[in-house]
Amino acid sequence: MTTTTTVSPTATSATTRPWRTFLVLALCVGGFATLQNLVVPVLPIIQTDLGTDTAGVTWTVTAWLIAAAVATPLLGRVGDMVGRRRVLLISLGGVMVGSVLAAIAPNLEVLIAARIIQGMGGAMFPLAFGLLRDAFPRERVPSAIGAMSALIAIGGGIGAVLAGPLSEAIGWRGLFLVLLVLSIPGAILARTLVPESPERSPGRLNIPAALLLSGWLVALLLPLSDGNAWGWNSPLVIGLFALAAILLVAWIMVEWRSKEPLVDMRTMISPAIWPMNVAAVLVGAVMFSVFAYFPRFVQVPTGTGYGLGATVAESGLLTLPMLATMAVAGFLSGPLGRIIGFRAQIAGASGLIVASTIALAFVHATTWEVALWGALFGFGLGLVYSAITSVVVQSVKPTETGVASGMNANLRTIGSSLGVTIMTAIVAGSATGMDFPTEQAYETGFLTVALIGSGAILVTIVGSILAARRVVDDTAAIEVPVRA
């Protein structure tokens, strides 16, 4: 069983200034969060500049996604063991090195290598949550986590909005230098102002479990990312899915039997955690489906009979209400959780997501209508995103914060790949030749997103019932000896 060690008392002294820690971490994490979608809008420009094809340039996104997925839980676990600030700085170093390499990349191969190195930054998310838990008083942790979660979600949206205008001003290579400019002061401030974790999880990194975890993540995310290009019934896609299933089962067996698991399976299947992990998959699918197709939807020409004909810049402006309400909701999540509870918050906010996507499917004749539904969607998403993270972080031991929140983030990434794949199959599949997707395809796509969001409501309600029963059982187990 894992035990806990504590570092010197001086490590806790910085908790007297928790919001200073928050602001520094916000600079580090917020900058990296923009990288999630910063490259996607400029892929055609990169393709032309480097003289490659669509399949090749797509690997700049796929390589980053897979690298981040592998690094997030692994480095999160290492942070729990050797110190979260130390590993945060290592992750930031990877981002900076990758950014410089990407900015000067002479060809596609070097750019892909740079993106893999940048993927180390994915570990900053769980490491930041753990450092916030260390720095803040228990009653203020939910507010801090909610605000940080909102910044992460907003960063992804801002990246998509700013990529076009920034690339026109400074070129696609300049986008990576912007990230470097943000990362350098973030690293300096984190080294000098953020306290190291006061508690450590002893033991060694479980290498077999780490290899199996990396293996099934890669085998799963590869076909999810490139299945449309390879063909879903191709031997390669089917083989990778089969390999992912085999490695997943092997990983679970190794973790279950290990005395020093990388990820404690007993924690992952607890009534407090597994519903949040399932909800993370569903919310990830909803979130990135809308992020990917909302701008395309409003850019459809008016000549189609249903499009709004927005320019790239105008579609960015129509996305701003979504990002603004997401920010507000993230900061409200913590205080609201103290009133109604986080699970009730997740269920209710998922209802807002469902309602807004249904409205988007059927009521989209004017720009103010889609902006309104986008704002409602952003508010619900901000609450859900923040509340799920709060439940996970507060449901595990402090020494498991990094790996638990890292796995939750990974499942959200898997969900995002699933969601975009499904949405692409529905919407893009209706377009033939140079035609635009049909209105019915977008309606079906948004309704499918709503259905997925409904699953988050259901699993959260089930989780709440199971968690309530566990509390009753634990109370009964304690009271029996007392009466005896």
TrEMBL record:
Compartment(s): Cell membrane
Pfam families: MFS_1
Keyword Membrane assigned: yes
Major facilitator superfamily (MFS) profile domain segment(s): 21-471
Membrane topology: Multi-pass membrane protein
Ranges annotated as spanning the membrane: 22-45, 57-75, 87-106, 112-132, 144-164, 170-193, 205-224, 236-254, 274-294, 306-332, 344-365, 371-393, 414-434, 446-468
Top-level lineage group: Bacteria
Classification via Gene3D superfamilies: MFS general substrate transporter like domains (1.20.1250.20), Multidrug resistance protein D (1.20.1720.10)
Keywords attached to this entry: Cell membrane, Membrane, Transmembrane, Transmembrane helix, Transport
InterPro entries on file: MFS, MFS_dom, MFS_trans_sf, Tet-R_TetA/multi-R_MdtG-like
RNA-binding listed as a keyword: no
Name of the protein described by the UniProt record: EmrB/QacA subfamily drug resistance transporter
SUPFAM superfamilies attached to this UniProt entry: MFS general substrate transporter (SSF103473)
